[in-house]
Amino acid sequence: MQNEIEETLPEAVQQPVTEIVTNESSEADSAMDETLELDASSVADTDSVVDEEATAAYAGSPLEDSGIDDNPEDIIEPDPPLPDYEFSQASEALRPVFEAQGWKAPMQVQRKAIPYMLAGQDMIVQSRTGSGKTGAFMIPLVEVIEPTHLAPQALVLIPTRELALQVGREAEILGAARGIKVVVLYGGVGYEKQLKQLKEGAQLVVGTPGRVIDLMQRGDFPVSSIRGLVLDEADEMLGMGF
């Protein structure tokens, strides 16, 4: 199944990647680390500038700012590193959303990862649960998507239906600020609603591997227009056989 996605999606994901590792976590964290892969070359493939924030979050969720920062000595990043990202770089469309949600400052993984995304580099980011990784990839995707183009432009693959729905809700909050439509693709339910949303022009797709592959094989989900790819909890998906 993994090969089917690799053969169909653009070749950008095969480019060299930048790796960043942090240890930041919230009080509610489990000790388990998650791995995300971001095809940040999407930045170079769009006309939009990836102005990012990243303390994005639903209250009490892994995106909420815990106020706990990493020891700088524990952070692994390229040498020399790019300057940290600050919220002052966010687009005017998203700043009111950040303020309304009470997101005051980027979390460590967001400060460190976003500059490389803005530079158009593919990335592998490893950081603990609750450290803000979802905001680190969702904000740039929302920023680079072109709202006037109705074809799918970004795909976020997530191992479980529950997490896909959670990330999808966050994507809808952020995407609404720029007129971006979001569809969540997952199994265990009928196809009709999801197919309707795709046909109406969803630019940001969040989905589980099983349903995404199913729709690709049926010809209902064309991925030739995808320019940004995120593998959320990639280790979990590999463990499941995808």
Explain the overall architecture.
It is a single chain. This protein has 242 residues and is an alpha/beta fold. 33% of the residues lie in helices and 14% in strands. It contains eight helices and seven strands. The chain has a seven-stranded mixed beta sheet. Strand 5, helix 6 and strand 6 form a beta-alpha-beta unit. Helix 3 (108-118) packs parallel to helix 4 (133-144) and helix 4 crosses helix 5 (161-176). Residues 10-14 and 25-69 have low confidence and may be disordered.
Protein topology:
Layout: H1 2-8, E1 17-21, E2 33-38, H2 95-101, H3 108-118, E3 122-128, H4 133-144, E4 154-157, H5 161-176, E5 182-185, H6 192-201, E6 204-207, H7 209-218, E7 228-232, H8 234-239
Parallel strand pairs: 1-3, 4-6, 4-7, 5-6
Antiparallel strand pairs: 2-3, 2-7
Structure at a glance:
The protein has 242 residues and is an alpha/beta fold.
Keywords:
33% helix, 242 residues, 8 helices, seven-stranded mixed sheet, 7 strands, alpha/beta
Uncertain residue ranges? 10-14, 25-69
Radius of gyration: 17 Å
Q: Briefly note the structural class of the backbone.
A: alpha/beta
Kindly report the oligomeric state of this protein.
single chain
**How many angstroms separate the termini?**
5 Å
Q: Please estimate the helix content.
A: 25-40%
Strand content: 5-15%
Number of helices: 8
How do the strands of the widest beta sheet line up side by side? Answer: 1-3-2-7-4-6-5
What composes the largest sheet? Answer: 7 strands, mixed
* Outline: globular
Residue-averaged pLDDT: 77
